[in-house]
Specification:
alpha/beta, Rossmann fold, 13 strands, binds S-adenosylmethionine
Length: 317
């Protein structure tokens, strides 16, 4: 119990939402957690695309990366409750579009793929295709993406969220993310539509918040907006949740979502500065907010990498 006995930080965001943050390799944290002890995981591992993190070297060989992916997903599957959910966010590089699908395949021996959700970061909608009821005055282009200068690839405005479960039979609270029917007049005719909302489906438009300066406002190269884990957790069903985990916590977007929703969180990261920010953000979420997504500037990392991660990275170089 070396890691579990020594959390890096514990945070009480509110009466019903506590966060426990572990500084270390998530494989070590998984190894110490009891089997079937976590309801929901919402996470985004490194994508092995050479992203420049503070500490982690995102440059394993493809074979090592997929072997490691299989290892951590097997460890996560052991810890997940039988009716639990693992929401696994993975993006791709236009020049290597298989990455996300390879990661999903690596999970196949361990968990069932119950849903595929498409996180849409940016979308263009023509006024003519929306109908008069939408009331658009002009065509719409919303959200942020990194433009690609290429004659071969289109701009990448989307990432996957694979919803894995132990049996493929986890019950969801589909209407927690309900979308109001456009025409309410006939709604009561359908029993499932009595609430006036329909299931949102598997395309979720969630733009990044606009930031002025990355180093000050979002000092991490690969975060997701907190609305993404928030929607995953609500879809799983808030009444079925004791604890949510993010084994790759980063700046704690999932921890922030837990604070907003009043549920407990446990997280791990190998980078002390990211983890410190994550704990601060979760704590701040429990008190009245001034600038919710804003975090303080970070110093350059001086932390060391856990032994197991260092060994993996050394064999990759
Ligand atoms: C894609 S980022 C996660 C970002 C997070 N979803 C957010 O919104 O802030 C991946 C994170 O995994 C961390 N990491 C890499 N290897 C790890 C390991 N073996 N155990 C725990 N964390 C690790 C990196 O430091 C990085 O912060």
């Amino acid at each position: 119990m070396a890691i579990l006995r020594n959390p890096y930080r514990s945070v009480k965001a509110s009466r019903t939402s506590e966060g426990t943050f572990y500084l270390g390799d998530c494989l070590d944290v998984f190894a110490e957690l009891p089997a079937h002890s976590v309801d929901v995981m919402v996470t985004s591992p490194p994508y092995n695309m050479g992203i420049r993190y503070n500490t982690y070297q995102d440059t394993l060989s493809q074979a090592d990366y997929l072997a490691w992916t299989s290892d951590w997903i097997a460890a996560a599957a052991r810890v997940l409750k039988p009716e639990g959910s693992l929401f696994l966010n993975v993006g791709t590089r236009p020049s290597d579009p298989w990455t996300a699908l390879d990661v999903a395949q690596a999970a196949r021996p361990h968990l069932k793929l119950q849903n595929i959700i498409h996180w849409v970061k940016s979308i263009a909608i023509e006024r003519a295709s929306t109908g008069a009821a939408a009331g658009l005055a002009r065509d719409l282009a919303v959200g942020h993406y990194k433009p690609i200068n290429s004659e071969r690839y289109v701009n990448d405005c989307h990432e996957f969220v694979f919803h894995f479960t132990p049996q493929g039979s986890t019950l969801l609270d589909r209407l927690a993310l309900g979308v109001p029917y456009q025409d309410q007049s006939n709604v009561a005719r359908w029993q499932s539509a009595g609430s006036g909302v329909r299931c949102r489906g598997n395309t979720w438009f969630i733009p990044y918040e606009t930031i002025q300066r990355r180093d000050r406002d979002r000092p991490h190269p690969a975060t997701f907006p907190s609305r993404l884990p928030e929607q995953c957790i609500r879809l799983h069903g808030l009444s079925n949740i004791d604890v949510v985990m993010d084994p790759f916590t980063g700046l704690g977007s999932t921890a922030v979502a837990c604070a907003r929703l009043g549920v407990n969180f446990i997280g791990a990261d190998i980078d002390e500065q990211y983890l410190a920010e994550a704990a601060d953000r979760m704590k701040a979420e429990g008190t009245p907010r001034v600038l919710p997504e804003r975090v303080t500037r970070m110093k350059k990392a001086t932390v060391s990498v856990p032994a197991r991660v260092a060994a993996r990275q050394a064999s990759a170089s």
